Amino acid sequence: MACFHRLALRYTTLLLSFMTILLLFTQNSPLVESDDPFDDLIFQPTCSCRTCVMGFLDDDWFIYRYNPTIPALLNRKNSKLHKNTYKWWRGLQPSRLRVNYTEVVDQLFSLFPDEDHYSDAGPDRCRTCAVVGNSANLLRSNYGPLIDYHDIVIRINKGPTQGFEKDVGTKTTHRILYPESAVDLENSTHLVLFPFKIRDMQWLISTFTTRHITRTYIRVKSSIIANENKVMILHPEFIKYAYDKWMQNHGRYPSTGFITVLLALHICDQVNVFGFGASSTGTWHHYFDKTRTHFKGGPHGGDFENVTLHKLQHRNKITMYKGF
Ligand SMILES: *[C@@H]1O[C@H](CO)[C@@H](O)[C@H](O)[C@H]1NC(C)=O
Ligand SMILES: *[C@@H]1O[C@H](CO)[C@@H](O)[C@H](O)[C@H]1NC(C)=O
Ligand SMILES: *[C@@H]1O[C@H](CO)[C@@H](O)[C@H](O)[C@H]1NC(C)=O
After folding, report:
1. Which terminus of the chain is more exposed, N or C, with fewer CB under 10 A?
2. Which residues of the sequence carry a binding annotation for substrate (predicted)?
């Protein structure tokens, strides 16, 4: 704009024609190569998709919240927790059991892949992700082929594909689970544990080894079928980040669905969201059963999550498919 003013002043005396101003506007447009190195930084594509999560870094609202240095998935090397994260995390679903976190992490990565997952972002990558929630608005949506077209398809908890292929697709590259929502997985699917407590990590170890853990705060499956070489674990630091930065500490902790969308924003270049929200008739239940789901109830700040997801959509960071 400063440049525009300077040039505009110089030109007004000469020739204040509509065409000149139009031309100057074109030169200042972000779509045209600019000589200003700062502009180059802002408008450099960060991925090779048509739009990128990290696309235009000129969005203060997004930049304030989005921290690409927060680890999304746990490994041995990044496993150390900040003291206050540890304290907060241990308070989410408290238990009197005394457990040594370091030892649990050690056991986890002697069983499961100890990798630096998805650290391959760059201008040549275009990873598209579909986050598939469990809302009844998927029924009669015919989204199946569209969902399957994504590189990564993340499903949440029990959300099945069998019998619902037309509306939800057939592909599941990742399934978000915790002990209380556990189901069997296909061999090609990544199990992604969301640990809301240290017991969840112990349960994961137990299901692939001794199978001795049969309860958390309720009775849980002591074993599941899943590919042990594809297990991933959400970083507890990421849950705290979702709560502090994205929820602005509304509710007690963020919902699984909300964290999953944020996870996708961190490991994907383009994020499309399906099966969130109410159905067209205003009911809140799963597409696969009649279980009522909560919007404002429970420990999660449903209103705030909803507003934040809509803001992400408005800023072209996600696209929400509303279904039927
Ligand atoms: C947890 O275990 C590690 C390794 O076995 C040990 O060095 C550490 O002192 C233990 N921490 C606590 C609080 O017991
Ligand atoms: C599952 O995939 C792994 C490779 O990740 C393979 O070693 C294993 O045999 C497969 N198991 C089944 C039941 O197909
Ligand atoms: C979610 O937020 C959007 C936009 O702010 C609003 O239009 C919609 O009614 C909200 N949904 C619910 C269930 O409150």
Report:
1. N
2. 93, 134, 157, 217, 253, 257, 277, 286, 300
Query: Are residue 20 and residue 88 in the same domain, yes or no?
Result: no
Pair 99, 240: CB distance under 8 Å: no
- The whole model's pTM is what? 0.85
For residue 285, the domain's CATH number is: 3.90.1480.20
Residue type, 98: R
Q: At residue 183, does pLDDT exceed 60?
A: yes
* Distance from C-alpha of 167 to C-alpha of 187, rounded to nearest angstrom: 22
Torsion on CA atoms 248, 152, 158, 134, rounded to nearest 10: 60
Q: Is the dihedral of CA 290, 166, 48, 126 positive or negative?
A: positive
Are residues 215 and 278 both part of a single domain? yes
Q: Which ligand is nearest to the CA of 101?
A: 1
Per-residue model confidence as pLDDT tens digits over 235-256:
999 999 999 999 999 888 999 9
| Statement to judge: residues 110 and 177 lie in one domain | yes
Which ligand lies nearest the alpha carbon of 107?
Answer: 1
Residue in the structure block whose two tokens are 């930065």 = 245
80 lies in the same domain as 19: no
Number of domains in the chain: 2
Distance 303 CA to ligand 3 centre (A): 8
Residue nearest to atom 5 of ligand 2 (CA): 229
| Domain identity same for 101 and 168 | yes
Residue 32 to residue 198: CA distance in whole angstroms: 51
Higher per-residue pLDDT: 147 or 44: 147
Question: Does the annotation flag 134 for ligand binding?
Answer: yes
Using the atom order of ligand 2, give the atom closest to the CA of residue 229: 5
**Ligand 1: distance of its center to the CA of 312 in Å?**
41
